[in-house]
């Protein structure tokens, strides 16, 4: 007999081997982990899911989180030292940054003060209130630096939800998209974000995924995500592409 109730599966069961390219695990330098102890707790929690490699991406945001390659490296080295001393945590830790496209972005780009993922991919973001006025110019300049722009959580920019055509336009301009795993269900960011995430996956517009986890509450929410088989089957190739590109 046909059932109207689709069986759902836990996303956590399919994250083994994932490379998390967007998270706020480095301690004490943005709105993510507040201490080394919290960072290690997050890493242990992810390790239980089989996630073994992390590219840590703290914010670089003018007048909010004025991080530099030095402040990020310093935090990374503190955490790396403690990780080495921790028993039972065999993880790979690297660092990059999540760059706000703001009035200072093009300056730090020109000065070589950005931190790409794997030396090739630059993780960028915009304000949730309005698009960056200099976004198109910034994308062009990123390309001139021989970098690929990766827009973090495109599904969370709600001003594009009713202008969906903007997504393929940006894509045609060379922008890659990294979706948040927490966006797959309404619990974290709302129903509208979840619907757009599913639509972007359906239209094959998402290139990579990341957790964007800031704290244990979000990690706990990640562990509770259930997906339909249909949505999971669209997601799995993106997870594999992320592993292949960044491992």
Q: Strands, helices and their partners?
A:
Blueprint: E1 8-10, E2 19-20, H1 36-48, E3 53-56, E4 59-60, H2 69-85, E5 92-95, E6 98-100, H3 105-110, E7 121-125, H4 135-144, E8 148-152, H5 166-172, E9 176-180, H6 186-189, H7 191-202, E10 208-210, H8 216-223, E11 226-228, H9 229-246
Parallel strand pairs: 2-3, 3-5, 4-6, 6-7, 7-8, 8-9, 9-10
Antiparallel strand pairs: 1-11
Commentary on this structure:
The chain contains 9 helices and 11 strands. Helix 3 (105-110) links the parallel strand 6 and strand 7 (121-125). Helices cover 38% and strands 16% of the residues. The strands form 3 sheets. Strands 4-6-7-8-9-10 form a 6-stranded parallel beta sheet. The protein has helices at 36-48, 69-85, 105-110, 135-144, 166-172, 186-189, 191-202, 216-223, 229-246; strands at 8-10, 19-20, 53-56, 59-60, 92-95, 98-100, 121-125, 148-152, 176-180, 208-210, 226-228. The mean pLDDT is 96. The protein has a single domain, classed as Metal-dependent hydrolases (TIM Barrel, Alpha-Beta Barrel). With 247 residues, it is α/β, with parallel strands linked by helices. The protein is globular, with a radius of gyration of 18 Å.
Brief summary of the model shown:
With 247 residues, this protein is α/β, with parallel strands linked by helices.
Q: What is the approximate shape? A: globular
**How far is the first residue's CA from the last residue's CA?**
44 Å
State the share of residues found in helices, binned by percent: 25-40%
What is the CATH homologous superfamily assignment? Metal-dependent hydrolases
Q: Which CATH class?
A: Alpha Beta
Average residue pLDDT? 96
The arrangement of helices and strands along the chain is: EEHEEHEEHEHEHEHHEHEH
Share in β-strands = 15-25%
Number of helices: 9
Structural category: alpha/beta
Please tell me the total number of domains: 1
CATH topology: TIM Barrel
Give Rg in angstroms. Answer: 18 Å
Strand order of the largest sheet: 4-6-7-8-9-10
Uncertain stretches of 5 or more adjacent residues? none
How is the biggest beta sheet arranged?
Answer: 6 strands, parallel
Number of strands: 11
Return the CATH architecture.
Alpha-Beta Barrel
